[in-house]
Design goal:
By secondary structure, this protein is mainly alpha-helical. Helix content is 63%, strand content 3%. The longest helix is centred in the N-terminal third of the chain and has 26 residues, at 64-89.
């Protein structure tokens, strides 16, 4: 008599556990392109959740992002070792290994869904340009030149107000201006009230700063802890503006080109000489790259306006990043470029240069009037 072997059906719990992330991912794909829906989720779920995590994890002095990296690495290592050991010891080793791998992939799926609904959704909501009423469109060469001149002049002036060593290199203590970051947005908040979310002091990246430099990053906003992280090995004169850039992400500015612009404006408007200088210096780099691309002679005519202190910082920055030019930085740029485009930022990695349009639009009036710091 032939024995009929009944196939076991997956437990209801397993079916539900697998269905939930798939359903949430599908809903994201279908609903996230709807601007009203994205605005609602961002305002009432995504930002509050990240703000809560930022508040909770902000009590921890170390970067929770780096602690999570270590925890995930150890977890994966121990998980794989244990899976192999159990698979070898038991007769049903292959089935056990597949089951444990399935559980691991399920955890990854839930983390991905969390990322979609707590971070990726933000890119579908209203941008800073839309909220502020700015256009951010094409600019005239005359205005580009005038604003670049304004930034170089003011950067040269503020460069002389910075603590330096005997060779004119940056010597401002990081802890001092890092603590001051919680107040840096006060002046810009009055102009753009929608930026008034609380600023939480960014964390230093002790373990991953060198890796970030290899990848070409000066800071990271980490959605799984709601905190901003700063590459402390990057050139000092640019760190204050990087702090403002990462704080812009905390305040709901998600597009990179807009976060660059907002960060520069916040630094300049702060009145703190360290931040003001960093804002003008970083803005000068963006503007100079744009101006030199269309008229190198105009840019070269502005170089004599640099002070010795500013020129030292400019050269130090160039020398620092030149050592990392290579395959790792190129690969990471391509990966990040793809990520930005996937979030609807069609300019991709070039979006970092798009902040020039906003800078020219915002400062053109002052530049035409011959304004200074």
């Amino acid at each position: 008599m032939e024995t009929v072997v009944k196939k076991k059906k997956p437990p209801v719990g397993v079916i539900v556990a697998v269905s939930v992330p798939l359903a949430l991912a599908l809903l994201f794909v279908l609903l996230s392109p709807l601007r009203g829906f994205a605005n609602f989720v961002t305002a009432y779920f995504s930002r509050p959740v990240k703000a809560l995590m930022g508040t909770v994890f902000g009590v921890i002095p170390l970067s929770v992002m780096e602690l999570e990296y270590i925890a995930v690495f150890l977890y994966i290592l121990i998980w794989n070792i244990r899976t192999v050991v159990l698979a070898v010891r038991r007769e049903s080793g292959l089935r056990l290994a597949l089951r444990r791998t399935g559980v691991f992939l399920l955890v990854v799926a839930y983390l991905l869904v969390f990322f979609l609904w707590c971070f990726a959704i933000d890119y579908r909501s209203d941008s800073f340009t839309e909220k502020s009423g700015m256009e951010g469109g094409p600019v005239e060469l005359e205005d580009l030149y005038a604003v670049t001149r304004l930034f170089v002049q003011n950067a040269a002036l503020y460069a002389t107000r910075i603590q330096r060593d005997e060779n004119l290199h940056w010597a401002e203590p990081l802890n001092g201006y890092l603590k001051a970051s919680r107040y840096i947005y006060e002046n810009l908040n009055s102009e753009y009230p929608f930026l008034s979310a609380k600023s939480r002091i960014p964390k230093k990246m002790y373990l991953t700063s060198r890796i970030s430099s290899l990848m070409g990053f000066t800071g990271v906003y980490f959605p799984f802890s709601g905190e901003s992280n700063i590459n402390i090995e990057a050139p000092g004169p640019f760190i204050p503006q990087t702090i403002c850039h990462e704080l812009a992400h905390q305040k709901g500015v998600y597009a990179e080109q807009e976060a660059n612009f907002v960060g520069i404006c916040a630094a300049i408007a702060s009145g703190d000489p360290v931040y003001v200088y960093s804002g003008y210096l970083a803005g000068s780099v963006h503007l100079a790259n744009a101006l030199a691309a269309v008229d190198r002679e105009l840019w070269q005519g502005l170089i004599p306006l640099m002070s010795d202190e500013m020129r030292t910082d400019w050269n130090d920055n160039h020398a620092y990043w030149q050592q990392f030019e290579g395959k790792v930085e190129k690969v990471s740029s391509k990966v990040y470029d793809g990520y930005l485009k996937a979030q609807g930022q069609e300019l991709g990695i070039r979006s970092y240069g798009a902040c020039v349009d906003l800078l020219v639009e915002y400062y053109a009036g002052l530049a035409r009037g011959g304004g200074t710091a």
